[in-house]
Amino acid sequence: MELSNLTLLNGDIFDANALGAIALDSQGKAPFQSALLHEFDRVVMLLRDDGGANRLVGNMIAGELRTQTLRVGLSMLKRSIITGDNNELITCLLEGDIIWDPQEVLEQLRAEVISFEPPLRERILFIEFARFLHMYVKSKRYLQAGCTMDSYNCILMALYHWARMEVGEAGHYPTPAVWEQVKSLNNSVYKLYEELTISGETMDQRIQLVQLACEFSLVSKMGDCCKWFLDLLKERKGPWSIEEILEFSELKYVEAELPFVLRKLASRSLIREIASWSDAGGGGYRVRYTF
């Protein structure tokens, strides 16, 4: 689409940092429509160079057409693709019509998601495993403390991340409607979801049942889902500190979960812990990790 037509489509959406634009209409045929379309006729996602101003959302009425505009930095969209933290951006990318893409940035990103080749797939599997482990551990701790509802909420989130892992392992990108994807796979994790949410057992019993399944799944999936991370640790012979590991930008997405992953991998002898004396912070042994 010509730049003049893009500008006419939605008034002021063009700026000097624009890389491309996608339009998602309320009359589209996508199986899952963005919540951003609630009471709007169209969502326009404008992809920007990250150096632009930070004005993210705008609304406009042109005749009878009510449009919501999202200004999204390229790094934010790439993060959303890997982490799944912003489902609305993913829906726009996968289901919208690319209306302007002079450098084919949007086409390339969409193709990468749809093909779901190992570089992207392995990173997503690791991130989902890390979050799955974190939520499972929190659920156990809450239940031990008698905080049943908090434990329930955490184990439900653990199942969500498990579901995303299952979809990824089946060779598909986990979409916002991930439970529909899992249901179509006839996967056991969907049965656990039903067991947790609608079973006639007490809530504590339901939580304990799912926790037991999670513990088994953690052991069975650890090697495959952590392959990308383990390969990263192999890149040098010496041990890594947590600070050095977090210098990898994509691992900052799981900064809170990384200590859980390192301890679990060490307990299963997939990596080794090396303790060395450090005078920093009053002395003590500093733990580093190696393959």
From TrEMBL:
- Origin, by domain of life? Bacteria
Q: Where is the Nucleotidyltransferase-like domain?
A: 17-117
YgxA-like substrate binding domain ranges (all copies): 125-221
Q: What is this protein called?
A: Uncharacterized protein
State the organism of origin: Paenibacillus durus (Paenibacillus azotofixans)
Query: Taxonomically, what lineage is the organism?
Result: Bacteria, Bacillati, Bacillota, Bacilli, Bacillales
